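Cast an eye over this sequence plus tokens and explain the fold to me:
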Amino acid sequence: LMSCCVPAIFGVCRLLSLARPASILAAVLLMLDQTSLVLARTAMLDPHSIGWFMLFLVTLAWSAQQKRSLGWAIAGLALAGVFMGFAAAAKWMSGINAVLVWVGITVWRLTTDDRYSHFGERIYAPFKYAWPRMPTFLAPAICGFFGLIAYLGAFWPVFFLKEGGVHDLAGFFKVQLTIY
């Protein structure tokens, strides 16, 4: 994003009939602006996060279909968990959104006996009778377990760094807080 903005600001300045030195100065100032640099870094993670999150939702919906056998449903939940973990590794907000999706599904399955109740009918009705041969809390547990493995796997190289490497769980949390 930033690599596109610097030449673009030069071009806009030239289109506004500014002299070449003034256009170059504007581009250099944008390149040195820390706020723009941080926002460009953050924006670079959004497409990855959204892509993994959408794969999580699609795989979750696929595994929830009633016609799936128990083995395929568990495999779908595991794959959805992996996608959820990668989305959370790209941006924590995707992990929080995935947890909220699971909370909504679980509350829906536990609180309503009517498949077409007025609350959440279009969002959660397909999940009401999903995974029929599975206890209510087992589906999110399977998905969460594989999501946690994928999340830790995304940061696995941090454990092997010679300088600044992580040797325990407290060090891992410290690295996580410095990244985000």
Observations:
- The radius of gyration is 23 Å.
- The chain is about 75% helix and 0% strand.
